[in-house]
Amino acid sequence: MSENGTFPRMTGTEFIPEWFENVSVNRSAAERRAASLPGRRTVKKDHQAAWLARAITCIDLTTLAGDDTAGRVQRLCAKARHPLRPDLLAALGLDALTVGAVCVYPTMVPHAVKALEGSGIPVASVATGFPAGLTPLPLRLAEIRYAVDQGATEIDIVITREQALTGNWAALYDEIRQMREACGDAHMKAILATGDLKTLTNVYKASMVAMQAGADFIKTSTGKEEVNATLPVSLTMVRALRDFGDRTGQWVGFKPAGGLKTAKDAMNWLILMKEEMGSRWCMPDLFRIGASSLLGDIERQLEHHVTGRYSAANRHALA
């Protein structure tokens, strides 16, 4: 660990299929464990407010729409700088609060960089032919380099699902390794698109291959699949990163994305990280939530905590 409490870039390992090739995930057991998580901790009142404030610091506030504009990105960045109204911050005893990062398409990176100047909030960019990842590899690598050149300090890459579905793990490792190199100093989050991988066993294996290839984070989904982040999938990925950490001493982050819309969702995933990994994995350098509408519901719940009343959603500024 560095002096500022964060972790160095992941180096990964050589390709070691023995770490995952004989693994088989019991779906029923994973679903039972995941179903038990929301009831394992009762977090109320001030403690709940503190957890929700922590969740805000872990959000990758995201816009990935076909009609994104510079103006929309600027509004998103304004919300990222000030995710809670000043009166709520004061009532909660907080001096300041920001989100974990802002995530946009590569062409929107310069707008985000300019809007976030001086804030310390990282700019993340999707790349590699997001969301399908089916463009030629040289173009995917060029897109990573473009986003980094524009100022992105975090890159969310997508894997080639065919390689996972056909068990061509060596080819998947080689591609992700090249993507990792193209990222340079930028942190790399590997999106597994778990809704396309069919089985939890494939999810575990893809997680392990991505970490061996040097991913700093493993991420569930693009948000564009038919099924995105679920607790059983997330549990499987978290167990994989725990196993990887036990073998290598490298601490890899985790990012659920897609379908997390409510404050209760944020609490459930924080509970997963607390139960499975401990408090250290509830910090933004090791845990992120990819979301767009989630922040609005968290702000609404915190206003209820402060005032005892639920406000209309339109009382809160939109990102």
Automatic annotation (TrEMBL):
<dbReference type="GO" id="GO:0016052">
    <property type="term" value="P:carbohydrate catabolic process"/>
</dbReference>
<dbReference type="InterPro" id="IPR002915">
    <property type="entry name" value="DeoC/FbaB/LacD_aldolase"/>
</dbReference>
<dbReference type="GO" id="GO:0009264">
    <property type="term" value="P:deoxyribonucleotide catabolic process"/>
</dbReference>
<dbReference type="InterPro" id="IPR013785">
    <property type="entry name" value="Aldolase_TIM"/>
</dbReference>
<dbReference type="GO" id="GO:0004139">
    <property type="term" value="F:deoxyribose-phosphate aldolase activity"/>
</dbReference>
<dbReference type="InterPro" id="IPR011343">
    <property type="entry name" value="DeoC"/>
</dbReference>
<keyword id="KW-0704">Schiff base</keyword>
<keyword id="KW-0963">Cytoplasm</keyword>
<protein>
    <recommendedName>
        <fullName>Deoxyribose-phosphate aldolase</fullName>
        <ecNumber>4.1.2.4</ecNumber>
    </recommendedName>
</protein>
<comment type="pathway">
    <text>Carbohydrate degradation; 2-deoxy-D-ribose 1-phosphate degradation; D-glyceraldehyde 3-phosphate and acetaldehyde from 2-deoxy-alpha-D-ribose 1-phosphate: step 2/2.</text>
</comment>
<keyword id="KW-0456">Lyase</keyword>
<comment type="similarity">
    <text>Belongs to the DeoC/FbaB aldolase family. DeoC type 2 subfamily.</text>
</comment>
<dbReference type="Pfam" id="PF01791">
    <property type="entry name" value="DeoC"/>
</dbReference>
<dbReference type="GO" id="GO:0005737">
    <property type="term" value="C:cytoplasm"/>
</dbReference>
